[in-house]
């Protein structure tokens, strides 16, 4: 089980490296890693489990955040307002995206960042993605809203990019053209 002490923090060089493609069939080690990432995001949203183990709530976790440079991440979003999502993405990629941009009106956070970072993080409003599950089966999904934002955040981790890299350093609250906020 992944705990907060297993999650590396900003400043660790692994967070700035590009992760390696994963080879199928998955090794037992890679399959366990995928399972553990998903288990963390599910457990972190369960009040009793997160309190017992001191977990910070998160909706996504990528392999580089636990110091493993593999192209694997997990998402788990339960939502009343829109369709939730729970998945493991292996070798994920965005195959198409909208011109329109969005951003979280409350700003983005990250389990690897222990400080508040203010500013607008522009993301594509809608994306179509392809990835593989742990059995090596490719899937395709169309995402919008919070699932699309979270998918882009985690995909950035696989490329050594932190969410705050997208914030304009001169005008952190500048709203990008063709964008509207996603209210959470």
Reported by name, the CATH topology is Peptide Deformylase
Query: Per DSSP, what share of the residues sits in E-state strands of 2 or more residues?
Result: 25-35%
**Order of SSEs, N→C?**
HHEEEEEEEHE
User: Shape from CA axes?
Assistant: globular
Mind telling me the CATH class?
A: Alpha Beta
- Sheet bearing the most strands, described? 5 strands, antiparallel
Helix/strand class: alpha+beta
The count of domains is 1
The proportion of residues forming helix, as a percent range, comes to: 10-25%
Cα(first) to Cα(last) distance is 29 Å
User: What's the gyration radius in Å?
Assistant: 16 Å
Total E-strand runs: 8
CATH superfamily: Peptide deformylase
Low-confidence stretches: none
Tell me what the structure shows.
The protein is of the alpha+beta class and 184 residues long. It has one domain (4-182): Alpha-Beta Complex (Peptide Deformylase). It has helices at 28-44, 47-53, 145-158; strands spanning 60-62, 72-77, 85-97, 101-104, 123-124, 126-132, 138-144, 179-182. It has a five-stranded antiparallel β-sheet with strand order 1-2-3-6-7. The mean pLDDT is 95.
């Amino acid at each position: 089980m992944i705990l907060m002490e297993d999650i590396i923090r900003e400043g660790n060089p692994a967070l700035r490296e590009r992760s390696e493609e994963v080879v199928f069939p998955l090794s037992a080690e890679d399959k366990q890693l995928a399972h553990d990432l998903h288990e963390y995001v599910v457990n972190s949203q369960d009040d009793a489990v997160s309190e017992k183990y001191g977990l910070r709530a998160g909706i996504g976790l990528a392999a580089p955040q636990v110091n493993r440079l593999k192209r694997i991440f997990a998402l788990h979003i339960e939502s009343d307002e829109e369709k939730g999502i729970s998945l493991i993405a292996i070798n994920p990629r965005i195959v198409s995206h909208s011109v329109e941009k969005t951003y979280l009106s409350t700003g983005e956070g990250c389990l690897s960042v222990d400080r508040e970072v203010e500013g607008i993080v522009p993301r594509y409003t809608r994306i179509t993605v392809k990835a593989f599950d742990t059995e090596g089966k490719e899937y395709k999904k169309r995402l919008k809203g919070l699932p699309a934002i979270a998918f882009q955040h985690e995909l950035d981790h696989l490329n050594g990019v932190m969410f705050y890299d997208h914030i304009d350093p001169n005008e952190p609250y500048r709203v990008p053209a063709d964008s509207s906020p996603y209210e959470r």
